[in-house]
Amino acid sequence: MEQEIHITLRFNLAIGKVGLNEIIYRLKELRDSLMLRILEQILIGYDDLISERLSQTKIYPSKARKGLGRHLRKGDPEGRFCRGRKARRKGYRKYTRKISTVFGALKLRIRTVECFKCGARYSPLLSALQIGQYSRKEMNFEHEIVEAVIDTNYRRLIDGRSIDISLGGIHNIVVGSDIDKTFQEPVSVDDLSGIAADGTGVNEHRGRKGELRNVIGITKAGRVEPLGCFTNTTWPEIERIVKERIKEAEPYNIPFIYDGEPGLDDFLADVAEGQRCTWHGPRGLYHALWEDGLKKKDSQPETDKIKQLIGIELPEGDFEILKEEDKHQVKVKYESSKSEIKELIKTFYEKGYTRGASYLGKLSDRLFTNIELWLKTGVIAPKTISLLERVFREIGRRLKRIAWGWSDKAVTNISKMIMIRQYSRDKWEEYWKEKLGIKGYFNIQIEAVELS
Ligand SMILES: [Zn+2]
Predict the structure, then answer these.
(1) Choosing a second label site near 442 at 20 to 30 A (CA), which of 147, 225, 318, 361?
(2) Residue 84 Cα to ligand 1 middle (Å)
(3) Burial of 213 (0-12, 13-18, 19+ CB in 10 A)
C-alpha cells in the first residue's frame, strides 16, 4: 500500500545576517520532533487502513484481512484467540499511549474496535505493530539505550530528548534481555591458544558485595573470544560450563588460567588491579630482606638484580602471540635467568636471609610456571596480561558506573553485552537486526523537497 505524507515547513531568515551554522543548528533541533510527527502520521494512517479492512468485510475479502484483528475471545477462561475478523469501530481510548522511541516520546491515540463474533473490544493497531499490549517502548529505543549504557553515556542520550528512562528502567531492559540465551554456540578449541578468566567486585542490590567473573578465550591470532560472564558463581562451576561450550571430540590441552588457580591467583589479581606494578618482585624482595634485617643500601643491589632477571625481554610488536622464531631467544634468556635466580636463593640461605630466600623462592616458582606455560602455548605473558587487563578493566569500569545496586542477572547480562559488543562486533550487529525484525516490510524515501 503506497501513501504519501506532505510536510509543510515554515521558516524565517534574516537576509544578509544568517549564517550556515545557525541554519544547521535549528534544523538539528527539528530532526527528532519531525521524525516523531512523521511516525505519528504513518501510524494514524495504518490504524485507519486496518480498521477499514476489519469493518468493511464486503469490500475486503478475508485475504485482505490476513494478519489483522487477532484478539483474545471475550470471556474465554482459557484465554484462546477468537476467529472473528469482523469488527466495528468504537472510537479512541480515553488515554493516549506513551511509547518511548529513539526520536522521543510518542503519544499514540489508540483506536478500539468491537468484534462482531465475540463482542471483545481490542486495539488492532497494537497487535499489528507487534509491540504488545502493555509495551511502553520500542526496540530501536532499547537498542540505543543498551549501546549508550555500554558506552556509559546514557545520560547524554536521555538529556537531549524528551526520553524518560530511569536507572531502574535501564535495569529492567537489561534484565529482560534474551542475551543470556544467545551466543551459546560451541567454540572450537582449534582456534584458541588459551582461556583466561578474572573476577571483579560489584556492588549489588542493597549494598550486597558481588563477584562478577568473566571468561575469555584468546584465539591463535591473539583476539578475544568472549566465553561467558558469571555473577556469584564458583570457579569450578564456571570451568564446567565453559568447558561444556568447548565441544571437542579430541581431548584438548590448552591452559585455563583463572585467578583462583594456585600459583596464579596473586599474579592475575595484581594485574587486574592495574595500579601496582605487574612485576612487583623487587619491592616484595626489598620488604622480605628488610625483615631479615638488611638496610636499604644493602638490599638495593639484590633487588636491582632481580629487576633485571625477571625483566625477561620479549619481542616487541602488537601480537600477543609468541612467534616460533622468537621462542628460542626468550627461552635462552629465561633459562639463564632461572639459574641465576636459583643461585641467588642459595646465596641468600647461606647468608641467613631466610625471609628473602623464601620470598624469592615463591616468586620464582610462580614466574617460572607462567613463563613455561607461555613458552609452551605461545602466548606471551605481558602482552596477554595487558590484553586481559584491558578487557577486565573495561568491564569493571562500566559496571562501577552503571550496575551499582543491580541484581545478579542484570550484572551478568550487561557484562555479556559489553563483551560481545566490544569483541564480536559483527555478531552483536546481527543480533540486533534479528531482534528488530528488519524484513523489508516498510520502505520510505524522500520524494520531493522544494521551496514553495
Ligand atoms: Zn472476537
Answers:
(1) 147
(2) 5
(3) buried
> How remote is the CA of residue 112 from the centroid of ligand 1, in Å?
13
3 CB neighbour count, 10 Å cutoff: 10
Distance 71 CA to ligand 1 centre (A): 6
Tell me the DSSP string of 264-288: THHHHHHHHH-SS-S--HHHHHHHH
Indicate if the pLDDT at residue 201 is higher than 50: yes
Pairwise CA distance, residues 377 & 369, whole Å: 12
- How far apart CA 97 and CA 136 sit, in angstroms, is 8
Distance 122 CA to ligand 1 centre (A): 9
The residue count for the chain: 452
Does 391 score more than 60 pLDDT? Answer: yes
- Ligand 1 centroid to Cα of residue 117, in Å, is 5
Residues 385-398: what's their mean pLDDT?
A: 69
Q: Give me ligand 1 centre to Cα 131, in Å.
A: 20
pLDDT digits (tens, 9 = 90+) for 107-126: 988 899 999 999 999 999 98
Q: What is the pTM of this model?
A: 0.61
Residue 384 · residue 302 · CB < 8 Å:
no
- Express each pLDDT in 249-296 by its tens digit: 455 555 555 543 333 333 333 332 222 223 456 667 777 888 888 888
Counting Cβ atoms within 10 Å, is residue 45 exposed (0-12), middle (13-18) or buried (19+)? Answer: middle
Q: Report how far ligand 1's centroid is from the alpha carbon of 42 (Å).
A: 26
